[in-house]
């Protein structure tokens, strides 16, 4: 484990880290992009009706803006255990230590969860309209899939690092959810 322990958030960790945070900084991860490329069968969907959650999918020339969290000193072991329980629930994510560029120019190595493209839950390349229809209808153990999308899109926008695909999806899912 690297110390201090940094964790990269690009989805729900941004608005619900679930561990003691000493510092949070906007950060960029090169070579990866944020995508609804993972079927969710636990938190935001079920095995019968999977939802979609965000994952980092490797892509040359791409980047993902998110948040780097420095874990409070002394909470590293419990944080690592909690993150593994939360993120590795179905083994579709891989745990990687990746270099991040923090806003202001510093670099850190951060614990980052990326998609395993060989895992059956991987579904990269879905059209945005198909993603919207799946997200609008799915519900899992942590609630409606659309709440996950809306919260993530809103928090990225508040941080000044909005994601055009997520903003389009949020608008389209809101439209699909209207009676």
From TrEMBL:
Record GO cellular component, one term: cytoplasm
UniProt keyword annotations, A-Z: Lyase, Transferase
Molecular function as annotated in GO: glutathione specific gamma-glutamylcyclotransferase activity; transferase activity
Domain of life: Bacteria
Enzyme category, top tier: lyase
InterPro entries: ChaC, GGCT-like, GGCT-like_sf
EC numbers, comma separated: 4.3.2.7
GO terms (BP aspect): glutathione catabolic process
Protein name, entry field: glutathione-specific gamma-glutamylcyclotransferase
Organism: Aliigemmobacter aestuarii
